[in-house]
Amino acid sequence: MADKILRWGLLSTARINSSLIPPLRASKRNRLEAVASRNQATADSYARQWKIPRALGSYESLLNDPEIDVIYNPLPNSLHAEWTIKALQAGKHVLCEKPMAVTLKDVDAIIKASQKTGRIVAEAFMYRHHPQTLKVKEIIDSGKIGKLQLIKGSFSFVLSREGDVRFDKALGGGSIWDIGCYPISYARMIAGAEPLEVFAWQVTGPTGIDLSLVGQMRFPDDVHAQIDCSFALPDHWFIEIVGTEGTLNVPTPFKPEKNEKVYLTRGRKTEKIDIKGQELYIGEVEDMADAILLGQKPRISLDDSRSNVETILALLKSAKSGTPVSM
User: Fold this and answer.
1) Angle at CA 236, nearest 5°, toward 203 and 80?
2) Fewest CB within 10 angstroms: 106, 148, 315, 323, which?
3) Does residue 1 register a pLDDT over 70?
């Protein structure tokens, strides 16, 4: 199977597709074959715009297409589970946009469907595959900042597009599901463990979503994390990792470019570390190929995805109740 070319189909004409199309076309092991929409006219127009070979007028047509091996699912959050499971049952592998789902019941259903069908499903956290992220993890694990103590992470931007699905609570909207999931995922990765307890505050928007959220996580071994996310604050993102002997600052943790810099401070000396990167989304595409064609485990396991959803739900529960939530 190693020499097989995987044929991909896009499940909808979502805006995020534009980030995945270039790496699919650059990859030698993957090929973009089709796009599906809820009507033929939209699919045809999108296929012409992006020069995609085939356009299908329903999601079901894509899942039933024998010429498709992998489905990319960028639908609204509340629809991730339904269509990922349908794709698995149709014999397709699935790269599902984050979050994997918005309930633990749905994540568990995806895991069960993957196990039953033998098909690969992975969550599209593109930053996890980037050389910068791998280098940061390597630095922390090497002990260069001493014993890990504190992780701080922030991801905010102003969302002003009227009618955006991220404002719709019924569709899984909210800042924590869309962008807060990144610093939460990052903190869990760096800690190498799951939080024992969380606490959060939120600012609720007119549609009932968390417009802004600030949270804390307590991990084993006295490691703590502080995260914030917002649709109402200017562009603001970073990760700061503090140990007993130093601090590592990551200015662009979630959307790193081809070449990035991180800063290691010990005492009064700060060292700039240059990292030769890669196209941001190519990693998740090649990771799927490694899993499907070579039998390797996806970098982001389904257990990892489940734990991230569980942590998000606990933070939201805490923000609503005003009390800490034990995990």
Assistant:
1) 65
2) 323
3) no
Task: Render the burial of 111-147: b for 16+ CB within 10 Å, e for the rest.
Answer: bebbeebebbbbbbbbbbbbbbbebbbebbeeeebee
72 and 58 together in one domain: yes
**Quick check: helix, strand or coil at residue 300?**
coil
Across-strand partners of 54?
A: 34
Tokens describing residue 235: 């562009």
Q: Is residue 294 situated within a structural domain?
A: no
Mark whether 220 and 314 lie in a shared domain: yes
Two structure tokens written together for 54:
């085939």
Please give the share of the chain, as a percent, with pLDDT higher than 70: 99
Find the domain containing 74 and state its range: 6-124
67 Cβ contact list (under 8 Å, min separation 6): 7, 33, 34
238 and 101 within one domain = no
- Say how far apart CA 97 and CA 172 lie, in whole Å: 13
| DSSP letter (8 states) at residue 221 | G
pLDDT reading at 236 higher than 90: yes
pLDDT (average), residues 292-304: 97
Instruction: Note the helical H segments in the chain.
Output: 17-26, 40-50, 59-63, 80-89, 104-117, 131-141, 175, 181-191, 282-294, 302-321
